[in-house]
Design goal:
With 212 residues, this protein is an alpha+beta fold. The chain has helices at 38-43, 71-81, 88-97, 100-108, 112-115, 123-136, 162-173, 178-186, 190-193, 198-209; strands spanning 4-14, 20-27, 30-37, 49-58, 63-68, 148-150, 156-159. It contains ten helices and seven strands.
């Protein structure tokens, strides 16, 4: 089973659906045909050697290679395939619409309407996908270790105020989990983040954790 390839992309053909593309990658004189996402297509260097994480997919009478620029994207693709009635085409459509980080936000928000934006997905399918994917998909966390946060497109919005970082550190030292810390910090009024003292913000976070 092929897990990765390093070589030269000698041909690339975007698909009409725009969610994926076909490429021919030459590795040590052998050409491999891969299907890749639109995000991976954009990430490919114009010339020179490139490296792709690969999912080697088998059917009863066929097999196909899918390439990804990041391991997170490949993991999301493989997670999608474990959901009920999700095949490679639908998995590619999902990742052609949302990055793994954005998909994590969609699932965290129970955003059925966002899943309906995936080509070929109606409301009933979106509702089923939401349940299935939340139970099987392992996706990136929605905030980063450097104190930055992610907006709804999965883009970092910059470093958090130092007071918030202090609150996170204090809650961590008190033994709270990362999920509890994330919920407590999200419950703090954004208008207070830049102006309030760390001690006041910590008290507010503890009240959120206590359900007050």
């Amino acid at each position: 089973m092929i897990g990765s390839l390093r070589g030269i992309v000698v041909d690339r053909v975007p698909s009409i659906e725009k969610a994926s593309a076909q490429i021919l990658m030459e590795v040590a004189g052998v050409g491999y045909r891969l299907t890749i996402t639109s995000a991976t297509l954009e990430a490919l260097p114009p010339t020179g050697e490139t490296f792709l994480h690969v999912h080697h997919h088998f059917w009863e009478a066929d097999q196909k290679l899918f390439g990804f620029a990041s391991v997170e994207e490949r993991d999301a693709f493989e997670g999608l395939l474990t959901a009920h009635k999700v095949g490679p085409a639908l998995a590619l459509a999902v990742l052609g619409t949302y990055s793994p980080l954005r998909l994590a936000q969609v699932l965290a928000d129970d955003d059925v309407d966002a899943l309906c934006e995936v080509p070929g997905v109606g409301k009933k399918t979106a509702q089923r996908l939401l349940v299935d994917l939340k139970s099987v998909l392992v996706l990136p966390v929605l905030d980063a270790d450097d104190g930055s946060t992610l907006d709804r497109t999965g883009t970092k919005t910059g470093l958090e105020p130092s007071a918030i970082a202090d609150v996170r550190e204090a809650l961590d030292s008190l033994g709270y989990s990362q999920d509890e810390i994330r919920n407590a910090v999200s419950g703090i009024d954004p208008a207070e983040r830049d102006s309030a003292e760390p001690g006041d913000l910590l008290k507010h976070a503890l009240r959120v954790l206590a359900g007050g």
